[in-house]
Amino acid sequence: MSKHLETTHEVKRPWLRLLTKQMQFVLDVFTLSAAFVFAYLLRFDFAPPEHEARVIYAQLPYVVLFQCAALMVAGVPSFIWRYVGMSEIKVFAKAAIASAIPVLILRIWLPEAFQMFRVPLSIIVVDTILAFGGVLGLRVLRRVLDEERSKRNRLRSLNGGNGHAKPVLLIGAGRAGMLTAREIQSRGNINLDIKGFVDDDPQKQGSVVQRVKVLGTTNDIPRLVRELGIDHVVVTFGEASRRDFRRILTICKQVPIKVRTIPGLFEILQGDVQVTRIRDIQIEDLLGRDQVHLDESSINGFLANKTVMVTGAGGSIGSELSRQIARFKPDQLLLVERAEGALFFIDRELREKWPGLNVAALVADVGDKTRMQTIFEQYRPHVVLHAAAHKHVPMMELNVSEAVKNNILATKFLGELSGKNGVESFVLISTDKAVRPSSVMGASKRMAELVVQNLNSTYQTRYVAVRFGNVIGSAGSVIPIFREQISRGGPITVTHPDMVRYFMTIPEATQLVLQAGAIGQGGEIFILDMGEPVRILDLAKETITLSGLRPFIDIEILFTGIRPGEKLFEELDAKDERLAKTRHPKIFIGQIATYPEEQVRGALRWLEVLARTGRSNKIRRILNDLLFDAQLEIETDGEVLVDQPRPATQHMVATTTA
């Protein structure tokens, strides 16, 4: 009978449900009564005197009545027996103590004339343990029987279908492993047969988790695969590090055996995904790192009950920022995005996932002064997270004026608008390409950093910038491009065999952005710990391998040469920039000297004029002179705009090309 038919059947005959509740109540009363009688039998070695029978009959009704009342007050009758778990044990314990207290009071305060109704202390203790252990045991037994029946039905359906359940090993016998085993065992639509766990914790060897034994360590995987005929292994770490995945993949390649994994424990506990959504290992797993631990109290004070604006909300970073912000229950979340389609999707997602969240989807270009001013006047944001930007390096080499308009001038205008409207915090999303920039895109983001640093001395608003490297899976990034090239049969294109980049997952980057925004005092350029750099060629090889193909055999790798504006090695800080620690281990403050305010303002005035007229070569010259030349003499058609010494701490080499 299907679940739908069962539900319909119960609606038509509700007396079945009532009968079930009545039967449960009868079983509870019987168990409580039997426990009380058994406690007396234990006291007298199962040979009680005849007069004690009258005592039992006198005491049993009110003792059981107190116990039933305690169970009802605690809400135990509402528990579904087959779902009882560890969290319910505390409820039973509280009910047991609550029922024993009135019996104990009567024992102490009843006069001698009512001796028959005074329950001995030993009986109170033993009966309480037996009675509530018994009613809890009934529910545990019901759950065990239900799980056994589900398991038999699952195996029966699998054996009656197209094939048998696939034997698997689960790697990791922790909390996530327990959840995975329990879900696989209880659900009938997963064709997996768990043969055992492997775990490197010596304390877990030989132990049993969800009736599944820990058979050895990860070094035993090759032997266990051969002995048990394992089809594939499943990594069930709650949060596996890049090192863990690489080590397990290396071991499994020796067999060889396929490796799969489950979602992260955070996603599972948040209800975002099911633990049984087992998937193949992806390149993101090899690039991912340890879970980010946030100071949620400081972020809560930064965002909760406030109006928060995210610019570029439809992009990879902006959309994930919006998801993370929604967790902290802002008073209103303003999604500013000029791409209508991208805005539609993130708006719909947030409304479905957080139905109580006050979201405003605002189609707007951050460079449109009239539109943005209207938005600020209408919504009065407290926090602005500025993620809107042009980010593709080679494309901005061909569209210099647009890079200036969007990345520099729009940041300046939005920052000034924030200061004039009393915004509490303004956070600029920056990039590692702003360090000793070799491209127009990098130079424009470095200028944006200078803009917010200078604005911090003008307004009460706290202005900070957060600088990080490449994010995994963002639109137009290398991994989606590699996957698309593999799906077409290759070749994969790599610019240079020695090119390396820093990588960070989008959720990790956005969480650290929020953390930096929460701890920033104003004027800082925060630099995120990006871990170790990754060689792009190695990334290409691993992406091919994880697709079940062989590099240079099944999929060719071609080297196309470095594109305009690109570096072989990206940097998060210049050699002469010092990093100061913050209270978060993955966030540092770049000790970067600011430029004189008049110097920055003068350059901005000329950039605005030149961007409107599209004079790319002169824009490059101004950016180069401002960011690199020691004399900082910026000339345009013979006019000297700035002639001031640069800060002594800056020693960059001019590499921007015309």
What does this structure look like?
With 658 residues, the protein is of the alpha/beta class. It has 22 helices and 24 strands. The strands form six sheets. Strands 10-9-8-11-12-13-18-22-21 form a nine-stranded mixed β-sheet, sandwiched between helices. Helix 12 links the parallel strand 8 and strand 9. Helix 2 crosses helix 5 and helix 16 crosses helix 21. The longest helix has 39 residues. The N terminus and C terminus are likely disordered.
Fold blueprint:
Layout: H1 3-12, H2 15-43, H3 50-74, H4 86-109, H5 121-159, E1 166-171, H6 175-186, E2 192-198, E3 208-209, E4 212-216, H7 221-228, E5 232-235, H8 242-253, E6 258-261, H9 265-270, E7 279-280, H10 283-287, H11 296-303, E8 307-311, H12 316-326, E9 332-337, H13 340-353, E10 359-363, H14 369-379, E11 383-386, H15 393-398, H16 400-420, E12 425-431, H17 440-455, E13 462-468, E14 470-472, H18 478-487, E15 492-494, E16 500-501, E17 503-505, H19 506-519, E18 525-528, E19 534-535, H20 536-546, E20 557-559, E21 578-581, E22 587-591, H21 597-613, H22 616-627, E23 633-636, E24 639-643
Parallel strand pairs: 1-2, 1-5, 2-4, 5-6, 8-9, 8-11, 9-10, 11-12, 12-13, 13-18, 14-17, 15-20
Antiparallel strand pairs: 3-4, 6-7, 16-19, 18-22, 21-22, 23-24
Helix pairs in contact: 2-3, 2-5, 3-4, 4-5, 11-19, 12-19, 14-16, 16-17, 16-21, 17-22, 18-20, 21-22
